[in-house]
Protein 1
Amino acid sequence: MKLQTICDIVNGNILNEFQDSSDYTKAFASDLMSDVLRFSMENTVLITGLSTIQTIRTAEITNLSCLIIARDKKVSCDMINLAAHSRISIISTQASVFEISGLLYEKGLKPVY
Amino acid sequence: MKMQYFIQGGDFSAGGRASTEVKSIIKQFNISPEKIRRIAIALYEAEMNVVAHAFKGKMDVDLRPDHIRVVFIDEGPGIEDIDKAMEEGFSTASDEVRQMGFGAGMGLPNIKRNCDEMLLSSVPGKGTRLEIKVLF
Ligand SMILES: Nc1ncnc2c1ncn2[C@@H]1O[C@H](COP(=O)(O)OP(=O)(O)OP(=O)(O)O)[C@@H](O)[C@H]1O
Ligand SMILES: [Mg+2]
């Protein structure tokens, strides 16, 4: 599934655009970064309510290239700059983690765990 | 190849910078992506432990043709009971740390899972030393 498709499904906005040709097949939802760090995140989208610089760092470390920030949590400029530097796309949406997970699951993204 | 980084306790905005930098350096060598992933995760968890639990520390990286060895030494409260700290779910993290997405008590077990050798020692009231080795 392409970035733009995911963005449309969750009715979001892409905050950080870069040429992302990834084909996402899986999703993982968590606010706990140590939890994210336990699994292999290839071709995975992270759905989270945690909008901090550590969300981006964790993505960098685990090779995540797409984050969906739930419930319109504020995404700081520092986060966007760091994400741009590491070629990480950020989608922001009003939907909750629960809703986003349901929508993407229905459209065929698979669980990581 | 040797590298040294300083880690400031409590500085969550810089936390993870050193590990990310090491990750991009080792990517330039002929090391499998899976090994790179494991090293990056172990270093990041260890770096965040210094940020979350200690006052200040340093990270010494020694990269060799067949392995990487990284030593974290910090000044901080240290760890009273190492066995307990290694248990999944044990955490003394503050609310501030939890707000940053940490404090699940999963870091140390995760480090152990991702490296080939792990040595953890501590003097309570003084500090902690963690040594990690990953073979290529
Ligand atoms: N460098 C350190 N200095 C002092 N205490 C530490 C240090 N590293 C770990 N600890 C202690 O060991 C506990 C367990 O560490 P661990 O990394 O497993 O979990 P955590 O850091 O609390 O949470 P998480 O890693 O899941 O975000 C910590 O809560 C803390 O009490
Ligand atoms: Mg930890």
Protein 2
Amino acid sequence: MAALPKRIIKETERLVSDPVPGITATPSEDNLRYFHVTIEGPSASPYAGGLFKLELYLPDDYPMCAPKVRFLTKIYHPNIDKLGRICLDVLKDNWSPALQIRTILLSIQALLAAPNPDDPLANDVAEDWKKDEQAAIKMAQEWTAKYASTSSQ
Amino acid sequence: MSDQGDDYSFEFEDSDENSLVDSALSSDDRDSENEFTGGASSTNVRTLPSSSNSSEGVVIKNSIVYKPWTLKDFIQKFFLDEAISLKEMQLPQCDIDELLIMLHYKNWQKEDVINDYYDDLERFRTRCGLPEIQSNKKDSGLLLGTRFSCLICVEDYDNIDTYSLSCHHRYCINCYQKYVDVSNRNGQLIRCIQSNCNLSIPHKDVSTLQSASNGHILESEAKKPVPDSSNKLLAQAAKNYIETHKNIWKWCPAPDCNFLTQLIDRKYEDKDKENPIKYEKDLDISDVPIVTCPNNHQFCHDCQYENHLPCPCWIVKLWIKKCEDDSETANWIQANTQSCPKCGTSIEKNGGCNHMSCFKCGFEFCWICLSSWKEHGSSYYKCNRFNPEEVEAVKKVQQSRRLTLQRYLHFYKRFAVHESSMEGDKKMIEKVDHKMNLFMEEESKKKHPDRNLSWANIQFLHDAIRSLTNGRKTLKWTYCFAFYLAKSNFAEIFEQMQDYLNKVVEDLSLIFEELNNKKNKNNSDIIIKRKKEIINLSDLIVKRQNLLIECAQSGLNQGLLYFETS
Ligand SMILES: [Zn+2]
Ligand SMILES: [Zn+2]
Ligand SMILES: [Zn+2]
Ligand SMILES: [Zn+2]
Ligand SMILES: [Zn+2]
Ligand SMILES: [Zn+2]
Ligand SMILES: [Zn+2]
């Protein structure tokens, strides 16, 4: 295995020594490019009280290519599909090597606080969201309690 | 569980990227793509500008008017020359780098650039990623060999080249080189590394950045005033363009061939054929758009498949579909070993020739039908036929489904064997060629070399192998043709022409095999001795091949031949 680039080492050090509030990112012991991530649901969002697990992988071309990120915990969100894939511009064509793992995780946290049903990945969820926002929010809360509650983990 | 997730979770990314590329195309491009039915004419297809002005290199053949291109010529003509013409005519106030970025952004449509430019210049420049006209270009561009701390790779360098656009987002050349390499893959304009900075890197600079190694750019690359046709971003953009204009542009399908052809016009005697529904089952094979690339590879511009005459395109599609569906059953046939029909010894086929002899018992037999070679050779080459008597016998003992499969296998086997024979021929010719080269070298070392012998003297070998390969290709497709052909008197005439072609193809293949198999050193003498015979046979192949195709063409046109494709 090729040596880990200095950039990744620096980013990892800072993620551990100076963590973002509400977010943890721990590199896997056997693969330092693979991170176990948790994000707390933002308060005042339907995901409040939930703790969401994600996986994050830095491809060989990182930071020239975006990290690969996916939700492992089931979540009811118009921009996150059944497989946990996330529709977020900075993970796709708006990625820049000047962005970092922590900026990406912050963007994901912001996406939980402000779902965007007009740019959906999970079309059926987005439909529900647009048709009846109150019902959709209630559903998101139920899923959070069912799949992401800290007491059940 | 993390290991598992690692494997499968990200496999969808590729398709996402594709759709991104797709959505970046203008709707005009999509329209012209939808028009493709094989009957598209230049009047209703939006093509690259000025492509029809130049008649140089244009080939008119049967129903098709086309022009072969190299990728470099394509880039020169449709990208670089377009920028130069904008500079000379409509937009002299812009420089070439800016014009290339504008053209790239507007998918190389010059008219669109002019329209957007005069519509709202500031907005257009912003979208293209060009700096404001007044912006200060001081301190931007390349800086050679300075002390620098890069925020992307977080390294501190004592002596490194760095780069920035007029936005002054400066990073080290190592990072820029990697960034440009990765970004070049999708063929879109490459923007500044900084997030949310939209500025586009000029094509010329892309080449310069790509030339970097160990912290320094190649200065000869940086000195080039304008990008040239070897620019990798332009090459990738050209590939995208060709990929999204498949109705007009086709890559030659031959392996390792980098030529492409541009469809300029399709002409039909019968106007009715522009009707796509009628065209769908067209029987006029003179309409099949066979084009030839500068490397002499013939292919069908509609199917982007090798020359498949005498089959019309729709029969080829049916056949390929059928072969895919039945490949499981047919797989065993392609195996390259067969056991001797007499003693059962396993025999490997090594050349293109189908005349086999068992090294154990000496039995001579035909690779395809496994019957004794003597029976074959007598009156004419019988092996093509699906013997109806045999069919009758089979019919009695087996069900009709099995018969259908057998009928298919009969033709498929012959189709496939010519395909693998082509490979065999190729290998054999390489060996003969090698021996010839050795001989020529020895000859030239002699004090009194044979003056009658020159490299030009063995050119005929290459011509012969091309006839042999093309002959086999036609033969191969006659089995697809014959599979769908309804029984008729004329069909028998067609089969006879098929026999004739098969005979000369095998005869020529046999000579090559003999040349190759003889253990004695005087192979080259034999080649010279048999030169006339080889030339005659290769001429005969071309003649019989043309006759066969003409026979199929007139038979289909007159309704004497017809297909059964239930
Ligand atoms: Zn750097
Ligand atoms: Zn910038
Ligand atoms: Zn070619
Ligand atoms: Zn075709
Ligand atoms: Zn034998
Ligand atoms: Zn033989
Ligand atoms: Zn035979």
